[in-house]
Design brief:
With 381 residues, this protein is of the alpha+beta class. The chain has 6 helices and 8 strands. α1 packs antiparallel against α2 and α2 runs antiparallel to α3.
Length: 381
């Protein structure tokens, strides 16, 4: 039980005071009053902490669900982007085919016009041209050659018209096919966009619920911090002992080595942090489960504290502002606010960002500015 030795020492002191003078009795009464206040203070903290723990569990669950949704949104967005790219490519191909069709139609019109002009000329001047050919031909062979030439010219123009007409039909079919492809891509894109919209609505709903829980937790946390501040004052007045400072750990690459006399809990926290010191940063990582492929700031701190038996379920950075006891510790200090969290263990900083940080949880010998952070520590460390 927390501070079990304190009531025992106080009771021994009370026995001595009972046999003393009236002045001593007054001191005893004052001491008893402070002890009663401290006990009541701790009881109230327990109730508030239970409420905060329940809200932390809800928030952690929401973060895990939100993280899953964000990953789904990212995947759907990538699919939507691909469909949009397909649609734009189909539009370009369709427009190119339409332009090609327009050119073919123009060629067809010119060929038909030329053929019509030739046929009209032959029709109007056929007898004269034929007589001219007969009269102007030097021989029967010349006559046959001239007639064959006229026939071939007519056949050529007819072939051009036929070929251009066939090409027009082919391109028209291509345009229709591309139009159908374009329509199918539009439908697929719109379906994916609808899925993206629904996921975004669900994400917004979770974020709103998250904000509501954080606000309610903040109210309870403010009351808890006031009680903890009073507890610290009472402990100081009652003469509670303060443990000595811990020694500094060393860093070999990205592996932290605890000092020889470090408590087992500190060793366990360092060992757990070492296990994930090469993982990438993933928003919400380490919240649905301690085991994950990557971690965010609070997920990494939660994993390390869990390794030392100091935490049973992950906390977000806001939850860590109310975890443990107020102030920095001698062996382990957690620094948190509602946007970020990191920890210092035996003189080494374990962090996902800031000076000396990286893209995931990493050890560093470089400290960072602590202003704006709430310092917390596990009792006794």
């Amino acid at each position: 039980m927390r501070r079990l030795a304190l009531p025992i020492l106080v009771l021994l002191a009370l026995s001595a005071f009972a046999a003393a003078s009236a002045i001593a009795q007054d001191a005893t009464d004052e001491l008893e009053g402070k002890l009663d206040e401290l006990e009541s203070n701790i009881d109230q903290q327990g109730g508030l902490q239970a409420s905060i723990d329940a809200q932390n569990a809800e928030i952690n669950d929401l973060i895990a669900r939100e993280s899953t949704l964000r990953r789904e949104v990212s995947a759907v967005q990538a699919e939507l982007d691909q469909r949009q790219a397909d649609l734009e490519r189909a539009n370009r191909e369709l427009n190119a085919e339409k332009a090609h069709l327009a050119r073919i139609r123009e060629r067809l019109h010119r060929a038909i016009a030329a053929l019509e002009e030739l046929l009209v000329g032959i029709y109007k001047n056929g007898s004269i041209d034929t007589l001219s050919i007969v009269l102007e031909s030097a021989s029967f062979d010349d006559l046959l050659a001239e007639a064959t030439y006229l026939e071939r010219m007519q056949d050529y123009d007819e072939a051009v018209v036929e070929r251009v007409s066939g090409l027009r039909v082919e391109i028209q079919a291509s345009v229709e096919r591309l139009g159908q492809v374009q329509e199918r891509i539009k439908v697929a894109r719109d379906e994916i966009a609808a899925r993206r919209s629904k996921l975004a609505e669900a994400e917004a709903s979770l974020e709103a619920e998250h904000s509501r829980l954080v606000a309610a937790r903040s109210e309870r946390q403010a009351s808890l911090e006031a009680l903890q501040a009073r507890e610290s004052d009472l402990e100081e007045e009652l003469g509670t002992s303060i443990p000595g400072p811990g020694e500094r750990a060393s860093l070999v690459g990205q592996t932290a080595v605890a000092p020889p006399n470090a408590p087992l809990v500190v060793n366990a926290v360092i060992q757990a942090a070492n296990e994930i010191s090469d993982t990438p940063y993933i928003w919400g990582g380490g919240h649905g489960s301690f085991e994950d492929s990557g971690y965010d700031c609070s997920g990494a701190v939660s994993y390390a504290l869990h390794g030392g038996g100091l935490l049973s379920s992950p906390l977000d950075s806001g939850g860590l502002t109310a975890w443990g006891s107020p102030g920095a510790g001698n062996w382990i200090s957690v620094y948190a606010n509602f946007g970020h969290a990191y920890m210092v263990v035996a003189g080494l900083r374990f962090d996902t960002g800031g000076t000396g940080g990286g893209n995931g949880p990493r050890w560093s010998t470089v400290m960072r500015e602590t202003s704006g952070f709430v310092p917390r520590h596990p009792s006794g460390f």
